[in-house]
Amino acid sequence: MDKNIIAEAAKIINEGGLVAFPTETVYGLGANALNPEAVAQIFLEKERPSFDPLIVHIADVNDIRPLVKEFDPRIEILAKHFWPGPLTIVVPKSDLVPDIVSSGLPTIALRMPNNKIALSLIKESACPIAAPSANKFGMLSPTSADHVRKQLKNVKCVIDGGETTIGIESTVIALHSKGFQVLRPGIITKSEIEKYIPYFEVEIENLPEMASPGLMKSHYSPNKPLFISLGYPENIDISKAARLSFSGIYSDGYKIIEHLSKNKNLKEAAVNLFKALHKLEESDVECIIVEPLPEEGIGIAIMDRLKKAAYRFTIDNFYKSI
Ligand code: TXA
Ligand code: MG
Fold first, then answer.
1. 50, 245, 302, 314: most buried, per Cβ within 10 A?
2. pTM, entire model
3. Which atom of ligand 1 is nearest to the CA of 86?
């Protein structure tokens, strides 16, 4: 890790600028969380609607106290087991946190990323860093510096930390008095968290969609139609289509085949998910047909991303557009 690059990037953050940096999950687009003008730049650059709040990244549990209304002891328990790591915790915020960060919600989403560059950047900047994934709103999340540059052409400072090691965004949970709720599934599963703090069942379907915009049905889309299907949908010419495979079993005749994991390992599939989708989005296929993965453990998080990617495409719309 180059200390000069970190120092330069921290200077940009302190001057109210934007820095794209690696985390263990996906690349983030960061700004000083306590500077509302700087945070506004993130929304502009990402073309992100103002109703979608940002995760605030910290490097030390003690950094949290000024940001929260009161310190929930469950944060300490979760921090001990899961931080630094891909878990984001939503709790009531203090007045210090600008409303633009939380999109007007009375809460703040907190995360300590498990990546040396990210942690050094936060420490060197000496401020909490608000950072959504470094992609255009609704598009594929970036797992490499090249993915960031492809979508966010105006961001001058992109710290290249190689490919991310987890590949999908953090698990987002909210802490309520009766227990926690999962707002976005991730690599850290509900049952792992439940070992340490109680869970309170609220069906995601019963939460208002805007309780967390991570609950939106459409998100994370490639720029080509994507369908989830065990076989291939009737009437699709698979010689012009790509297959994204998990089991390694697929029909002959696809133009391109990408494998999520050669050993049917869900962790490996998560690491490769966005990388494979970026590659297929750049290829000359007409559509991407994804094999459904088992919806258990990490498979829940991967299928969550895939269903959101597929949501805006129906076969009917596809035929209208070609
Ligand atoms: O792994 C990650 O979480 C990455 C890296 C960069 O840390 N970040 C990320 O940020 O995925 P973003 O903005 O793409 O997703 C943040 C999610 C959104 O679904 C947002 O709605 C939710 O967290 N969120 C943020 N603040 C919230 C809050 N106060 N209440 C409820 N949901 C919140
Ligand atoms: Mg995102």
1. 302
2. 0.91
3. 1
